[in-house]
Amino acid sequence: MLQNALLLVPLLVLVCCSQQNRPIIGIMTQPREDHPEYGSYLVASYVKLFESAGARVIPIHFDSTKEELLHIFNSINGLVFPGGGSFIDYGHDLFFPNSMYLYNLTIEANDKGDYFPVWGTCLGFEMLHIFASEIFDRTVLSSYDAWDISYPLVWSQGHKESKMFSGLLQDHRVFDDLSKYNSTMNYHKFGVSPETYKTNTKLNEYFKILATNSDRQGKEFISIVESKKYPIYAVQFHPEWPIFEWEESANVAHFQEAVRGNSHFGRFFVNECRKNNHQFADKHDERRRLIYNYKADFTVTTTGDVQTYYFPKK
């Protein structure tokens, strides 16, 4: 028996060490029109969510060239489209077309066997639906009254068999944390209706619905999805808020169940990024891009976000 156990040790070490244990996640920045002196911004709580789960972060400047974006894509282990108020259309600025370019690189990479995960939060959730619908405009979105309100999730059938939650079957606390308490912070005026999946076959083929909610008027919207084919995941709510945002006027939950439940999303996505083996060829290039090179401003009184990174114009 002891000999058999010893034979397993090299295999366990091999499995452990085959993972990417220094994952780097790229988070897309956005234009800030109320601060024209800056080129782009990134709310710090998105960075903290993934740092707290064991990853490092680099900002991906939305106005980068295609060559720059391709270089970054080939060097990072995962991509995040955060929430925000940016225009998600072709005609306004480079945020939407450059996000779509990175999305297309993701699909191409995964189709070739290069496991590359993507996460979308709120605006990122909506944008991923636009991409997946192949309509490429906002007609897949509906209006909702879900601004500044926390809800318990309503689970959809089969959510426990999903990639996002199947690892929790031995520990049901997170399911309870997210569905028995007002744990998920919603800050959106648009969303995706389950009815849209019935009329848009592309979305129905692409995403699996894991959870829903209803807004103040009783209109149902989708809260969590994951792609049926790709390592692409999205939530309409903000997992980072209960843990890292402290605006006193916001209806955000900070109790331990909300913190524990929302922490799952950061841990899950970072573990997905560990399955990718991209890396920077030049360590100097890697270090100069990391978020540690930038200072986060204390902005809670001006934006409602505790800290924000502002980046100079490209």
Automatic annotation (TrEMBL):
Recorded GO MF terms: gamma-glutamyl-peptidase activity
Protein origin, superkingdom: Eukaryota
Gene3D superfamilies per record: 3.40.50.880
Signal peptide residues on this chain, from the entry's feature table: 1-18
PROSITE patterns per the UniProt record, alphabetical: GATASE_TYPE_1 (PS51273), PEPTIDASE_C26_GGH (PS51275)
Record: active site: 122 (nucleophile), 238 (proton donor), 238
E.C. designation(s): 3.4.19.9
Keyword Membrane included in the entry's annotation: no
A GO cellular component annotation in the UniProt record: vacuole
Alphabetical GO biological process terms: tetrahydrofolylpolyglutamate metabolic process
Top EC class for this record: hydrolase
Swiss-Prot/TrEMBL catalytic activity: (6S)-5,6,7,8-tetrahydrofolyl-(gamma-L-Glu)(n) + (n-1) H2O = (6S)-5,6,7,8-tetrahydrofolate + (n-1) L-glutamate
Hydrolase keyword on record: yes
InterPro entries: Class_I_gatase-like (IPR029062), GATASE (IPR017926), Pept_C26_g-glut_hydrolase (IPR015527)
SUPFAM superfamilies: Class I glutamine amidotransferase-like
Record domain Glutamine amidotransferase: where: 43-240
Name the record gives this protein: folate gamma-glutamyl hydrolase
Organism encoding this protein: Acrasis kona
